[in-house]
Amino acid sequence: MVMREQDSLNETAISAVTVGQMRIKRIKQGSVWTKIETCKLTTVTAPSGYGKTTMLQEWAAQTHLDVGWVSLEEEDIQRVAFWKKIILHMPGLPEQDRKHLLDIIQSASYSPTHFIATWCACLREHQVTGALVIDDFHLMINSNELYEMTTLLEEMPNTFHIIVSGHVFPGLSFKRLLRQHQVLQITKRDLIFTEEEIESYIRNHLHKEPTDTAIQNIMQQTQGWAAGLQLIHMYEQFQEDYSELQFSNVLVARQLIQEIVYSLHENERNYLLSTSILNEMHVRLCDYIAGTRRGRVVMRRLREQGLLIEHQEEPGWFTYNKHLRTYLKEMLEMQNMDVNELYNRASVWHENEQMLLTAIRYAWKAGDYPRVNQLLIKAAPCLLQEGRIDQLQEWINRLPRKYIYQMELGIIYGWVECLRYQPDLAQRHAHMIEEQLLRRELQFSEEEEKRHFADLYTLKSFISLLEDDVKSTMDYASKALVYSKNSSRYFSHSFDYNRHDATILHSPLGGGGDLRSVQRVYEGLAHTVTNESVFSGYYHLSLAELAYEWGMAAKAKSHLEKALAVADLFGLPGLLVPAYILKARHELEQQGDAQSAKATLHGLKDMLTRSNASADWFKKAEAARIRIAIYQGDTKRIHNWLSLFHMQEPPIEQKTLFEYITLVWAYSAIGEVETTQKYIKKLMPLVKFGNRINAEIELHIIQATLLYATDKQQAILSLKDGLRLSTEHKYLRIYWRGGESMRDLLQELLSMDAVAKKQRKYIEQILSYWSEETDDQKLQNRLTSRELQLVYHLQLGKRNNEIAQELDLSLGTVKVYFHRIYEKLGVKNRKQAKELAAGLDFSDIL
């Protein structure tokens, strides 16, 4: 049987309250429980043992609403774990929206306002009706999450209901909901057993004729306490006479449970006590901890006696009644048993079953720091790959500091600092580890030493990438490859090297541009992109940039959406900034929507603020906003930015290229020819030395368009230099941004006899952007005759099966055709395609 490493789902609600092995139906018509569906929030508050959970299970079984159920544990009180559990169990949400909410909550750029607003919008859009029960809500003590829960309750539609159950809720404020009569409060007095229910219990479950004396006796002893009644039922299996029992306080109840436990066989008693440390039990796990091979027999007997509850969703997994487990753990502490050893055995078993996160939790409970350290090293690659940085950082910070300065955990801690937007701290930590390795004081074998050096330089190359330090990135990536040609536990060196190489070759920030090389690199790496990782983010970002430069709008948009999802998930400035700048460029140049582009870059600055990113990334985001001002001809904003830029002018180096090329564009836009030429002259040696092809082409284009009016001969020379660099890589959009001046220059150059045949075709390809065809004509030229036929029938309102019959095609072929048509038209569905193709000429196919 495959066992999943995750919290098991809550038991399915049953049709009646179960007490021990008895079932008592308690919810009646007209009771307070029938009012739950009229309120947004229901609170069920009472001490332990009053049957809050079992009553809610009975209500869930009777209501017509779709009910989700969450039982909180101690590990669920952190923000991501808490909201993730809520989202996964909330009924009625479409899977796409559920995934989107999970992406938001796990994003490093998390915004509570955006999260709650998106969630409530989903509930309203899909008219979600249902209820969510959150059991043991009193464990939630974090004020931020309680405030967010309050906001969600206030903003969500009335069609959804949340029921919270627990001892008390001191941090949950619902004054506003009370004023709106949207809160139902169920308390201890609504949960106690009535005399009528006790009478039914005596008759149906104790199989005795109820007398007033017996009813009053049990009522006096239990005070209507559900756990007391449950204990009587359990005690009935071991003793004949229960009339002397007293339930006036918890201590007596504990004594009763002790009596029940000690009445069991010694093997069963030891089994109970040893396994009470477990949140979830499996027969093999319990056998391992208790040191017995009779677990199946013992567990069957315990289940028959009502002491075990089997999970409905995961057969073979059990839990104790939570009150019984509490008392068992207290009894365990009074025994002469090594509790830490039991926790350690649980940790070892879960490690052997590859359930590393659960193994780490039990190792923490055992207080075994060396074991926690060992397990963290083992689990770190998976946690880093999945972006679970918060969890990893929390565990590492709880360890004594000496472990952070050890080699393997030290490298992992460097990755955590790096991925938490602290490259300076990560750099210092990596430098300290490098000194330890270079001093060779740690007595590593040659193989271990190579592995550590490879891991270290992979980390340092990534830190340099975040700092936009191109030279250091390539140097460290090359060093990593010297020590290991194959793979790392954290990131594959060969993939990392190629990712760094491709990112630097082509980047809107660094001015790279060997497009063909980038394409070749990523064609070879395509099979490695299997999930949402940092690498997959750079992969999709680079492919989006390539497609965008080559004018393939639909493909660019598809890759960009995937890159943005990963950028939001990991929140790394080195990925966030270029992804959002590309998104703004798409909105500005492709859609002509300057307002959306501004909003995108404004949102980027907000995310950088929340992530405590360095000032360098803010400068890049602001430079991207100035490019919008240049596009709009907003000279006032350009002048303001130029003044601020010169007040804090950074040195001219590889990582400031984006800002300085923006500076050149800005001076060119306001007609400052001499200043523009001065900066082009300063930047040209730097971009040539760094092989920054994109930046060099851009500078030649700016110079050509700037000189066209005054020195046509020099303008054509600059254009030729740009074409010489770009012909091999098929740059297109970079020329389109030059506007009509670039079009005229290209046409004039084309009229000359000196242009080579290969370059002539390339120039014609660039000029096709300015052809006099209408948008409809351009659109029509993209479609084949057969595709036009399908679009024509689509305009007539025919369905796929009708089109297939009309054109003598299979239904599958029609679907493939439409998928291709949508991609060519840059649309997502039939409605959009129909609207976009309304002006096409179908005369040739009729």
TrEMBL record:
Pfam families: AAA_22, GerE, TPR_MalT, WHD_MalT. GO terms for molecular function: ATP hydrolysis activity; DNA binding. Keywords: DNA-binding, Transcription, Transcription regulation. CDD domains: LuxR_C_like. The keyword Endoplasmic reticulum does not apply. GO terms for biological process: regulation of DNA-templated transcription. It comes from the Bacteria. SUPFAM superfamilies: C-terminal effector domain of the bipartite response regulators, P-loop containing nucleoside triphosphate hydrolases, TPR-like. The keyword Transcription applies. Residues 776-841 form the HTH luxR-type domain. Gene3D superfamilies: P-loop containing nucleotide triphosphate hydrolases, Tetratricopeptide repeat domain, Winged helix-like DNA-binding domain superfamily/Winged helix DNA-binding domain. PANTHER family: DNA-BINDING TRANSCRIPTIONAL ACTIVATOR DEVR_DOSR (PTHR44688). This is LuxR family transcriptional regulator, maltose regulon positive regulatory protein. It comes from Terribacillus halophilus.
